[in-house]
Amino acid sequence: MNRPHHPRIASALAGVSSLLLPAMSFAQQAGADYQPQSKFNLQPPVSDIATQIYDLHTIILIFCALIFVAVFSAMFYAIIYHRKSAGHEPAQFHENTTVEIIWTVVPFLILILMAWPATKTVIAMKDTSAPDLTIKATGYQWKWGYDYLKGEGDLKDVADGIAFYSALATTYEERTNVKPKSAEYLLEVDNRLVVPVGKKVRILTTANDVLHAWWVPALGVKQDAIPGFIRDTWFKADKVGVYRGVCAELCGKEHAYMPIVVEVKSVEDFRTWAAERQKVRTAGVPASAPVAAAAAPAVAAPAAVTPAAVTPAAAADPAARAAAVPARTASGG
Asked: Does residue 224 lie within any of the structural domains?
């Protein structure tokens, strides 16, 4: 028996399932431009910090595995070969200095061996000094805003002043199964964050409404975005490519609809991209969104940054509600 289709029920179920989608999106890894080595391991690192995190993860996992094997081997050996039915009597000893020294010194040495590389990595992660490019990432419900604040060295004044919003490119019809899902379902945006390869990029994170978190695993970056505060982190991509992340802080019912896409270009290509955006920004004409598959339609620049009125009918549709939020031009005009 065929049951009638209820759009509101489907929309409600889609909203509930969105709480689980951030974790699921990396397991799916739809998208031809990213091929993970294993769905059971971390994403392949493409920055020095991400490489350190990957290696640290492997080292700690080996330590844990060795400790697990040693402890459980000793436990099962004692259970099997020193059981009462075999005629063994429990040993009686107290205040054994040798044993106390061993079970104090050995864990201490293990912690030192684990803490040394971890501390070096954490210190390196916090060193945001001398960046080649500074970008502010602002979290909104539910999109990201990017402002290219300052370039240094050969990037001086190249991208300064460029600003745009980056929102989910997946349509509402795809999310509610009205239309078939694309290859990059919930993983593509209308405007990608573009950075040059081999340059230190400092990311300043903040938020406009609630807590968000800017997370791109392949770059080794994860930083909370807190309203009223400025936090910072950095990365230096070693390879040209497209790297994806998500908001990693539960920020509302459409938390799953805040993907992050970082496109790493060569320095020459980045200069070309920035020059095109600067021309559009100076002319005050909106540019098309740089989506890989096809360019998205241009969005007209608002006359003033003021919230648009949302009708009750439009409020029920997340896509219509998101469209009502004032959007920047693709070039930040």
From this structure: yes
